[in-house]
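sorry for the late reply, my laptop died twice this morning and i had to redo everyting from scratch. anyway the thing you sent over, i finally got around to it. pasting the sequence first so we're on the same page, its 472 residues, then the predicted structure underneath. double check i copied it right bc i was rushing
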Amino acid sequence: MKTRLVILCLLLVVTAGAQEHNMARLTQSDTSYVDVSMGLSGETGRLKDVYQPDKLVAGTLDARSRRKLGRVNLFGHFGYGYSYATGSTWRGWIDPYETPFMLADSIAGNLSMERYRLQAGAGVPLAGGWSAGLDLAYDVALMAKHKDLRNKNTGMTFRVAPGIFWQGSHVGVGLDAGYEYGTEKVEYLQVSENLEHVLFDLYGVWLYRASGFGSAETRRLKTSGRVFADFQLGFQWGETSVHNNFRGEFGRNAQTETGYNNLRHGDVRSLAWSDELSVEIGDSHQIELSGEFSTMQGFRPLQQQELDPDSRIRIWVTYGDPVFCYYRRTHREQFEYTYLSAQDWELVLGVENEGMMHAYTEYPRRFAQQFSSVTPYLGGKIPVGKAGSLTARIGYAHTYGTENDVSEWQLAEPLLEQWDYWDGDSVLAGIAAAWRKDRMYVQARYNIVISASAADNDGTRQVAGLTVGFIF
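ok and here's the structure:
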């Protein structure tokens, strides 16, 4: 689930050279460039997601390029990121919202994470206005906690997506489809002796099992697969252009205990679809409409440890199909209008509506959480001199339609901490400055979310960042 602060950051940050999956569209322009940038950011504040740390410092190195060699258009990207967090808890997986089945501990500690991203794409023109392309990506993430209980995570994803595109005099149509495979392994280790920590096996809406952790290691492996497809449609007539991208994806992931004879912990099936529509009328008016919707289902296998009569070793035996126990539904809709003047200043008006519902069933009981929020916002951009610009936005997030079940079966402290973040209204504000001269550019940003609750004396979350880059 995206947090409000992340959404506002995305509204303010200019992403130079962002590239979609359908590499067949590379043939639509002969742009060639090399963009190399370095960034540093920091994040702090009590108003946070339960999986977020108290403080975070992150650095990035990013390089991307487009080049045309003969008839082939090429795209390449390399990204490296390192972050160091303090006061991190419950972070059992790199992406804690990818599955409801979490292995985690409650001890606050420092957490470091490294990410490496590689992407390569090529587009080739064909006859009759057609073009074909291929997108390849490989990502690696390493995460480690530096205090008992210590979890070390190693994650990998690989993506391949071919695409086609046809461009006529007024209409453009494209389609790309692909497959992504990923693995993530978490290992828990205790270094200190004569102490017993608690390891929590979570399975949705903070329902849990707890066990004391000794000196032995505990490992779990998560494998995932995802298929997706994008359909692009563009239309241009006179000064009006319309572009639309529809995306659908279906994914599955499963968790097993490594080294314990087929012990399974949970299977997940997810379905997501989104649509992005943009309309440009002349040089002054832009309208953007988007919507994202997803569902997730979680299943727990029925297993029992039995003695194998042949090997005389106890193994885990599965009975029947996994039992449906968890359901999650999310949505996000956004409308934004931008007016661009001939003097290079902009005015932005927008509204975003989002919500989430998830539930866990342990028959005959059912636990559920849900919330919805609407965020109108206003922004503007003004030029500063000949090479700079200043952008500012402000919004108000109002939460409505809330529900939260609490019982002795749940971990009450993180449940309520997460709910305090979701349930309250908040003010969002941000400012960004950009400067570019010749081949160099600099971007600086500051964003803050302020809780509207008078009872919270320190209900803020702040993010600041600086990026320096060069374009050749």
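The chain has one domain: 4-471.
thats about all i looked at so far, will dig more tmrw
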